Amino acid sequence: MVSKALMASWAALDVLLLAAGVVSLVLSIVWRAPNILMNMVLSDADLTAGTILGIALLITFVISVTAIIQRNHVTMPLVILNYVLVADAIGVVIIGTFVWFYTLRERANFHDMWRLATRDERISLQDQFRCCGYFNGTDLAEVGGSFCTSLEVIAALPKDELETNFCVKPITGFADSTLNNIFTTVRLSVQRH
């Protein structure tokens, strides 16, 4: 007979596995909504990987419940569960590594995205963060919107990149916070297994 403490521990870890799968799946769906800033931070490939990971974790949850309710002498489902957990852990490590690697060059990566953004998207971000241009007022600043209303307004901004008048700091701040939270969540789900 399996001890009650062991079963309680298994049940708690299994609930966490279920929660990780649900959170991964739900956030991958919710974050697909049109949002200029979130779409810069998370690509469709990232969200698809999150969806696949969420589905894999939910399937693992079902396998784990099936494996544990078998009679004591039937151990093959537990062996299969162990292999599936190892596969999940490898998937989580790979996705977490991609997220972590992207955070190493945020300023350059988002400058490339800023350059590829449409004029309307840049104006929207400039209005949202009350900034003009990416690294400075001459770096792809768009005249228009409610903050960067004219070339004179942009020219009057301080030239120091550390000032909050340029978009690099708020964009990378949002991206850093979002990506670090995703990386931490992914890393914690590996540790639970």
From TrEMBL:
<feature type="transmembrane region" description="Helical">
    <location>
        <begin position="81"/>
        <end position="102"/>
    </location>
</feature>
<feature type="transmembrane region" description="Helical">
    <location>
        <begin position="48"/>
        <end position="69"/>
    </location>
</feature>
<keyword id="KW-0812">Transmembrane</keyword>
<protein>
    <recommendedName>
        <fullName>Tetraspanin</fullName>
    </recommendedName>
</protein>
<keyword id="KW-1133">Transmembrane helix</keyword>
<keyword id="KW-0472">Membrane</keyword>
